[in-house]
From TrEMBL:
Signal peptide limits: 1-26
Organismal lineage: Bacteria, Bacillati, Actinomycetota, Actinomycetes, Kitasatosporales
Gene3D superfamilies: 3.40.50.2300
Organism: Streptomyces naganishii JCM 4654
Listed name of the protein: Leucine-binding protein domain-containing protein
This protein's record includes keyword Signal: yes
Domain of life: Bacteria
Similarity comment: family membership: Belongs to the leucine-binding protein family.
Amino acid sequence: MPRRPRCRAVETAAAALLLLALTACGSRLPESDFGPAARSPAPARGGGAPIPVGIITSATSPVGGNAFTGPRDGAKAYFDRLDARGGIGGRPVEVHRCDDGGSGVGDNECVRKLVDEDKVVALVATTALDYAGAPRVSRAGVPDIGGQPIGAAYDTWPHLYGIYGSLAPRDGTPGWGGTLYGGTEVYRYFKREHGARTAAVVSYNQAASASYARLVERGLRAEGYKVVTEQVDFALPDFRAAAADLKQQGADLVFDALDTHGNARLCRAIDAVGARITAKVTNVQNWTSTVPEDYKDSPACRNALWATGASRDYEDVSRPAVREFRDATKNLATHSQWQLEGWAAAKWFTDAARACAATGITRGCLDGQVGRARGYTAGGLLLPVSFEPSATPPTSRRACLSVARWQDGEGWVPQGDMNSTCFDDVPQLPYTP
């Protein structure tokens, strides 16, 4: 079975942390009052007491509304369908939602409320901009199942199980002695499959943006690319000049360390100067159905958008597992890859809970079930996920990835099968979170 490194989380985490660094204007407390509106009462079906589960989301954060709500919405859709079909052994799942406001203070309050007051047996699909409460979750022995690694928490603390797995010891220190590792398979994919040789990396003249851009540059160079670096002023970015230069230098690919607004402006500039690129590569966080609106002024660049990740394309309804997700979420205004991953996280919890039903659905039993995961796929929605702590960091790994391309009129079109789009001996490059 193909084994996948931690690197998919690297790209997602770096991009999400970048959003915070680029747009943060101070923290804010949760807008939720943790009252009845934050809880989804399960239907009365009999068969036993409800199973309390918590979902922490930075729904109202400095990054902006809806930036982090996808996993929550996907998980909630899964639990709603589960309860409509009888729950787990006749017991409904009672979902307690908490908006941490994107702040460490708010996150700690959410953890206190859910862990100590609501006595949840697990957290599911956590998507926290500042997961300050992670140590408290770990000390309480509450399994956090299928969370998004926006930061290093899922490679630091025991009992936390990120949606992409981890090889790190998780002994209270990030990664291996404070160092994490990420792979280069995305760059290898475009080199092998599309003959790309020159890549541009566009960033702001801002610390977090520049740091992430350097990580991308290192990966590209490790795969033998000629790298064109373009840095624009954060306050007054001249994207047209950057686009003209990457056109002149013949860039096949464009990567970036920008926020969503910056990406849209960059694409508009690429179209304006007539640059023809093989791919404008984005990450799982931007793998959404809102592309036509986000890139409405740049049709050529829009149709050169590619996304890579570690889960099956949410548009690939030829797959029964994806079809079930889409059927359950058909009333949502938009769809995204993060919604599908939240759905997968809820399924992961459910599979563990069913395995525990005979002896008791407790924090300890759930933690044991998830912690022993070796190649879990959520019914084919995820690349195989494992938690196999290694005393030493990997230098290279076999790596697989999911790839999709945006095409007007069709949406995100899967490019091959993620379980066979694999590479051997992919370098694992160190970085500091």
